[in-house]
Design a protein that fits this description.
The complex is a heterodimer of chains A (about 350) and B (about 400). Chain A has about 350 residues and is of the alpha/beta class. Chain A contains 14 helices and 14 strands. Chain A has two domains: about 230 residues, D-Maltodextrin-Binding Protein, domain 2, CATH 3.40.190.10; about 100 residues, Periplasmic binding protein-like II (D-Maltodextrin-Binding Protein, domain 2, 3-Layer(aba) Sandwich), CATH 3.40.190.10. In chain A, the strands form five sheets. A five-stranded mixed beta sheet of chain A has the order 10-9-11-8-12, with helices on both faces. Chain B is of the alpha+beta class and about 400 residues long. Among the domains of chain B are: about 50 residues; about 200 residues, MetI-like fold (Orthogonal Bundle). In chain B, the strands form three sheets. Chain B has a four-stranded antiparallel beta sheet with strand order 1-2-3-8. The longest helix of chain B is centred in the first third of the chain and has 34 residues. The two termini of chain B are about 55 Å apart. Chains A and B meet through helix 1, helix 4, helix 5, helix 6 and strand 10 of A and helix 2, helix 5, helix 11, helix 12 and helix 13 of B.
């Protein structure tokens, strides 16, 4: 039995035999988290830039910082967070069964996950699109030339479905090789078992940087065959918890919009701008409305910086992944990041 | 006095209800079943309530929906436009396929190795011992990863594939070989083969009867081979030898045409066969040793040759003891095939996992996996028990 199946069986046992923490009554996740003294955050098993453990097992990455910001907002301490590494196949059962409090692991927001799976989505933290990566020596220039290719893909993802859709729509044939563990899947691709590796374009960049012996031997084809809005996931029917997660994300984005950074935070706290004062808790009210400390947004930004800082540090041009801000720039700069007002 | 003794005589036949062992047995069993039923109903209800409270969809309606994901290898036609039910069926056939071939090959390998360990040749016996002790003691999951990595890493890419024989390609995409194109004559050849097998069995029965009656031997083996292979060959030649091959050829990225054994299937099959073979080897060895040496001595005293001694005296007795443990090995091989998910062979579990993840219906998916393995295992068990009954010692 693989760990995935074991975990699923355990979760199944929880559903069959016990009532599950979470769900119906208002706010049990917030209470549960406060009682436990830490947030349990479901992340990927190892994707460079997003969630990657180092040799000591300490996680770093874009998603990790979102979780830390949440812990800082809840407890005033970014270290009060536990990371549970989950494969694409394990993640949903882990959330449904209450093993983790939320997922911050590049899950795509779709109708079916919102409804059938019993989830709710916090605001999108990364706008992505699915792409294809191939070895340069194959001489492929566009995805339309991929007829007959063998494709490495992670099972149980939207990627797997988009892949089949794309080849069907273009009347092309393909052979999928599906392996649950990203390590094995990437190893299969880089050893030449597959012609093509497909996932979200940012994920391709991460795999190329993190696992290729020579990243320059591989190119990411220009086509983006899908929309992949990646957002944190919580259980449906727990509005207070969803509010907390959503507004922590918005706070990070608003901070960038207002020019609040990790460095100038303390100066900004003395600002006379009423919007800044409201957000950083100098004018009380926002924290109380969320059921949190008034310093919630202050603590979040202090712990990890604003949205733009997190992006630049882990994914941006100065990081190994070298991703452009693109859609993930603020709406004022031509992107799609449009945080709701904190007032 | 008389009425008293009559009352005493009648009493034992009408005891109080709680003293009646039969009645008590029935009541207890009914109670036991009732408790089990209540427990099942409670858990089922609990599941439904929990799922509803969490707003998770339930029921098997999803099986009719379009699966929309691709599957790498399939014995039956499948496309992403087919339903989840069809995808499940693909997984089931893949599981049955690899298990069936695995059981046959593991039996052959295990028997050879078991006999080799008993060999009087020091080298042969030691090599077999090393094989058993090595592969029995390494976890199967690791062995699968090892074989898969080996097949993937050692073989070159499709564009510079090895060609050990004309038309056969070995690359990290698998082993490609030509297959004959279908022809109506092939059906007749298959029918001829069946008839040949039936005739060979009839000849065998006749030869044995004759030998028992007269002591004269008949070359049953050669006659059987002639019938089973010769008859289809005659049909083949009579219909004008219609044979053309579908040759694999490199087209674009991959090979087209021919038939292929993928590295995933290959690694899974090798892993299962080599691992289970060790256990079968030990069973064969133990059960041959279980037949007392006196039997062999008696056979020698009758003047039987070594081969005949094995075939006529030792093996028939050993088989009786071999069957039950062998059943267990067959069952575990079938269940171990679910380790396919590690290396990405699309077996039942792999496809069910994907289905669960795409639909979110874990309870239904896991229930189906459990039900399928239970049914497969019970069927294997049933078949082996029937065979066991056929060869079991009949006491007269």
């Amino acid at each position: 039995m693989t760990t995935g199946t074991l975990r699923r069986l355990a979760a199944l046992g929880a559903i069959v035999f016990f009532g599950i923490a979470g769900a119906a009554e208002a706010g049990p996740t917030v209470d549960k988290v406060k009682q436990a003294g830490s947030v349990n955050c479901g992340v990927q098993t190892g994707v460079a830039g997003y969630a990657q453990p180092d040799s000591q097992g300490v996680y770093t990455g874009f998603n990790i910082d979102i979780c830390k910001a949440l812990a800082a907002a809840l407890f005033g301490d970014p270290s009060k967070v536990k990371f549970t590494p989950l494969t694409a196949q394990q993640r949903f059962t882990a959330l449904q069964s209450g093993e983790v409090d939320l997922l911050v692991n590049n899950t795509t927001w779709t109708l079916q996950r919102d409804t059938d799976l019993g989830f709710d989505f916090a605001p999108v933290i990364f706008f992505d699109g699915q792409g294809f990566m191939v070895a340069k020596k194959l001489g492929v220039k566009t995805a339309k030339e991929l007829n007959g290719a063998t494709v490495c893909v992670s099972p149980g993802t939207t990627t797997e479905l988009n892949l089949a859709d794309y080849f069907r729509a273009n009347k092309m044939e393909f052979k999928p090789v599906v392996i649950e563990k990203i390590d094995e899947l990437a190893a299969a691709f880089f050893s030449g078992r597959c012609d093509v590796y497909t996932t979200d374009a940012s994920g391709l960049a991460a795999v190329r940087v993190g696992r290729a012996s020579n990243p320059d031997d591989y190119i990411i084809l220009p086509e983006r065959i899908s929309k992949e809005p990646l957002a944190p996931v919580v259980r449906q029917g727990d509005d207070q918890w969803k509010d907390v997660v959503s507004w922590v994300v918005y706070a990070l984005m608003n901070a960038e919009e207002m020019g609040i950074t990790q460095k100038n935070l303390d100066d900004m706290a003395k600002s006379e701008d009423p919007a800044v004062k409201r957000m950083l808790g100098s004018t009380p009210g926002m924290g109380k409305a969320l059921g949190l400390d008034e310093k919630w947004a202050y603590n979040a930004v202090k712990a990890v910086g604003n949205y733009g800082e997190i992006f630049d540090k882990h994914l941006g041009l100065s990081s190994p992944l070298k991703l452009e801000r693109g859609y993930n720039n603020l709406w004022t700069k031509g992107g799609l990041i449009y945080p709701m007002p904190i007032r | 006095m008389a009425s008293d003794s009559a009352a005493i005589a009648i009493r034992p036949s009408r005891p109080a209800p709680w003293r009646d062992p039969r009645l008590r047995g029935i009541v207890l069993q009914v109670l036991f079943i009732a408790v089990i039923a209540v427990l099942i109903a409670f858990f089922a209800n609990n599941t439904i309530v929990n799922l509803r409270r969490q707003n998770i969809a339930s029921g098997f309606g999803f099986m009719e929906r379009e699966a929309a994901f691709g599957i790498g290898e399939s014995l039956i036609p499948y496309s992403p436009a087919d339903t989840y039910a069809r995808a499940f069926l693909v997984g089931l056939t893949n599981t049955l396929y690899v298990s069936a071939i695995g059981i046959v090959l593991a039996t052959v390998l295990g028997t050879i190795m078991g006999l080799a360990r008993l060999s009087s040749n020091w080298l042969v016996a030691k090599l077999a011992a090393v094989y058993v002790e090595t592969f029995r003691n390494i976890p199967l999951a690791l062995q699968l990863l090892f074989w898969w990595g080996l097949l993937r890493q050692v073989a070159p890419g499709p564009r510079d594939a090895w060609r050990p024989l004309p038309g056969v390609f070995v690359s990290n995409r698998g082993i490609l070989f030509p297959v004959p194109r279908e022809d109506p004559a092939h059906l007749w050849m298959a029918i001829a083969c069946v008839i040949g097998t039936a005739l060979a069995y009839a000849v065998y029965r006749w030869a044995r009867k004759r030998q028992e009656a007269t002591g004269r031997q008949f070359p049953t083996g050669w006659a059987g081979l002639g019938l089973i292979v010769g008859l289809p060959l005659v049909v083949f030649l009579a219909s004008g030898a219609p044979l053309s091959f579908d040759w694999p050829a490199l087209r674009g990225f991959n090979f087209a045409g021919g038939s292929a054994v993928s590295p995933e299937f290959g690694a899974l099959l090798i892993g299962l066969v080599v691992y289970t073979g060790t256990f079968i080897a030990e069973i064969v060895r133990a059960d041959i040793l279980a037949v007392s040496w006196g039997q062999s001595e008696a056979a020698m005293a009758l003047g039987l040759r070594q081969g005949q001694r094995m075939q006529l005296v030792v093996l028939p007795q050993a088989l009786r003891v071999i069957i039950p443990p062998m059943t267990s090995e067959y069952l575990s091989l079938t269940k171990n095939s679910s380790l396919a998910v590690i290396i990405g062979f699309p077996d039942l579990v792999s496809i069910a996992n994907t289905t669960i993840n795409q639909t979110g219906q874990a309870v239904e998916g896991i229930a189906m996996i459990m039900a399928v393995y239970l049914v497969i295992s019970l069927l294997i068990s049933l078949a082996m028990n029937l065979y066991n009954r056929a060869v079991a010692l009949v006491e007269r």
